[in-house]
Amino acid sequence: MAELIVVVDDDQAFRSIIKILLERRGYEVKTAPNIRSAMNLIDSISPDLFILDVMLSDGNGIDLCRELRRRIESRNTPVMVFSANDDRSTIQRSIEAGATQFLSKSQLSSRLLFGVHELLTGTAAHTG
What is the DSSP string of 1-59? Predict the structure, then answer.
């Protein structure tokens, strides 16, 4: 059975690109445009990985990451956080919230598949 990845990003085009890239590699992908939709989705499934944008229409992915870490069901699930804003503060806040990995959107196309593989096989270290 394919590993299940939840992608949360308010940019429809970006969600679609990530979904296509991951599905071509054999992953099952569910997407959500905001935190509320993501939480509804997460309540009904048990993903193997979360990929969260920092800036969302109803909050931010860093807060969502914190919430995922508070929940028993998702406490140990890898979380990849990405953002167009890759300053030290954003990276640090993401890691402190429990993100397993941070990628800037400019790195995403080249690092996404590599990072997903690392996180799902347990070979990843915290990176920035």
Answer: -PPEEEEE-S-HHHHHHHHHHHHHTT-EEEEESSHHHHHHHHTT---SEEEEESEETTE
